[in-house]
Amino acid sequence: KNRIRTFARTVLVTILAGGGYVVWRSYEQRHPGEQLPHDPKLPTVVVLGNGWASTAFLKELDNSGYNVVVISPRNYFLFTPLLPSVTVGTLSARSILEPTRFLTRHLKRKTEVYEGEVYEVDPEKKTVRFVDNSEIKGEVDGTEISYDYLVYAVGAENQTFGIKGVKENACFLKEVWDAEKIRTRIVDCIEAANFSGQTQEEIDRLLSFVVVGGGPTGVEYAGELHDFLMEDLGNWYPDLADRIKITLIEALPNVLPMFSKQLIDYTMSTFQENKINVQTKTMVKEVQEKKLIAQNEKKELVEYPYGLLVWATGNTARQVTKDLMNRLSSTQNSRRGLLVDEHLRLLGSDGIFALGDCTATNYAPTAQVASQQGRYLARVFSKLHKKELLLNELEQAKQVGAEPAKLDSLANAVIRASNIAPFHYSHQGSLAYIGSDKAIADLPVFQGNLAAAGLATYYFWRSAYISQLFSLRNRLLVGTDWLKTKVLGRDVSRA
Ligand code: FAD
Ligand code: NAI
């Protein structure tokens, strides 16, 4: 009896403490305090983008010594690792978005956030030009702003290799509207296949879902699509679900080249069990409205009719980044992205730091790298501010004729603050969801590598991502969506 009572008391205390924490954090989040005002004497830091790199930077930044301005075409941060789940409605889009103002309103000094697309950076004049590209515009929809420091983190855009027909006919999976478009199209294809009198050939085409690119984006999407098919579509479209075909096309001999061989084999066998047709050593050459043409291993041209085509073949530099490279062409000669030094300073420029997917470094273009770079840069800015304060103090000490010992100690402090360590990337491992409650993980342990796969890894994948979400609000929303999907299933309405 005593044991039961102690257990019940512990459970009650845990629930109350958990509830109290949620209430306190929500209150704190929704009631931001006073901020220091804009100070014209301080340097201006213009931050381009609010993706992984910029958001990690802003989250870590002590901006009491800077006026910060954030410019991005969207006014929220998107948690990309869970984006494939939005394509089938496992998660709702808003659960993985975080308005940037929720973050900047909690910074020490008032921060401007502008929803705009930067189309020109002038590294000589130290200015950026940007426009309002949204549907609703005011009388002013374009302007120029000056910076002392520029944090350049505009990410990358979808790579198409200039293949004919991709942009016109394929869906991408990078932004939240891409995922929502895919979700609508899946149901649209099924409803069209179900249309009275549809021919058998057309039904097969409409129910052919093709993914191009066997990197983690393509693999995770194929896995999510399979779950949707097995857990939901089979119930609501019993006559059609069996005819749905998922095909993944990859140019290389393997999918997921960044994972260990063991995990690639595990993924391939899981996909085989799940009847996901994987075509490796197959390179897409052209995309037409209803079919794509690819070259297989034997150099034969093969046609793949499709109802929905998702294109996930990696990244390429945005136009604004290419233009910036052209302006700095004597030092910026990589086709992959911007070249930076070990402190993330853009080569050939003054006051510009570049980070994340827009750069060409030895690291893979991942959220993990971008967020570590963002946090590192925030620490660099703290040091720069500290150095500025110490220099002022030293100047004042000299003016009032302070003792030599005091001057020495201040001069040494300035040297210490000037000594900024280079960026160091610490790899925390790679994770990917492959469908039917299975995930794969390559984790660095001690000096070696641990390859894990299956149901337990899936729970690890879930807990890792829920803990990485940037706010308590997102954690609650994602947790609730997962529960809703388990209990109520996914919605198949074409809303
Ligand atoms: P982004 O996060 O893309 O942010 C770029 C920002 O710049 C955006 O806010 C954008 O709106 C803004 N911007 C664009 N153009 C302009 C402009 N002209 N002016 C101003 N602002 C502009 N990585 C992992 O490590 N683990 C994962 O599980 C993972 N899963 C992924 C799943 C998907 C579906 C995708 C697409 C990517 C995934 N990644 C993952 C990769 C990861 O999302 C990127 O590496 C990461 O987003 C890079 O961060 P970034 O800040 O450089 O760019
Ligand atoms: P990717 O660059 O990793 O993979 C693209 C794949 O497309 C390559 O394997 C390539 O061989 C193939 N390809 C290119 N052209 C082709 C063609 N014409 N026909 C057939 N196949 C073709 O791209 P992805 O998956 O979009 O990922 C981008 C970045 O985001 C990567 O750095 C990745 O690591 C990261 N990411 C990480 C995730 C994770 O860790 N779970 C999830 C999603 C993305």
Compose a concise summary of this entry:
With 495 residues, this protein is α/β, with parallel strands linked by helices.
Spatial shape: globular
CA gyration radius, whole angstroms: 26 Å
The number of distinct β-strands equals: 23
Low-pLDDT residue intervals, each spanning 5 or more residues: none
What hetero molecules are bound to the protein chains? flavin-adenine dinucleotide, 1,4-dihydronicotinamide adenine dinucleotide
How big a fraction of the residues is strand? 15-25%
Mean pLDDT metric = 95
First-to-last CA distance: 54 Å
> What's the tally of helices?
14
Placed side by side, the strands forming the largest sheet appear as 5-2-1-9-20
* Relative helix content: 40-55%
Q: Could you give a short account of the major beta sheet? A: 5 strands, parallel
The computed structural class is alpha/beta
Which key phrases capture this entry?
495 residues, alpha/beta, five-stranded parallel beta sheet, 23 strands, binds flavin-adenine dinucleotide
Describe this structure in words.
The chain has 495 residues and is of the alpha/beta class. Helices cover 40% and strands 21% of the residues. The protein contains 14 helices and 23 strands. It has helices at residues 2-30, 52-60, 83-86, 100-104, 166-169, 176-193, 200-206, 216-236, 261-273, 319-327, 367-399, 404-418, 455-468, 472-488, and strands at residues 44-48, 67-72, 76-78, 97-99, 111-115, 117-122, 127-131, 142-146, 149-152, 157-158, 171-172, 208-212, 245-249, 276-279, 283-287, 291-295, 301-305, 308-311, 315-316, 352-354, 430-435, 438-445, 448-454. The strands form seven sheets. Strands 5-2-1-9-20 form a five-stranded parallel sheet. The longest helix has 33 residues, at 367-399. It starts with a helix and ends in a 7-residue tail after the last helix. The model has no long low-confidence stretch (mean pLDDT 95). The structure holds flavin-adenine dinucleotide and 1,4-dihydronicotinamide adenine dinucleotide. 1,4-dihydronicotinamide adenine dinucleotide is lined by residues 81, 161, 163, 212-218, 220, 249-252, 257-258, 283-284, 312-315, 364-366, 430-432. 1,4-dihydronicotinamide adenine dinucleotide (NAI) binds at residues 81, 161, 163, 212-218, 220, 249-252, 257-258, 283-284, 312-315, 364-366, 430-432.
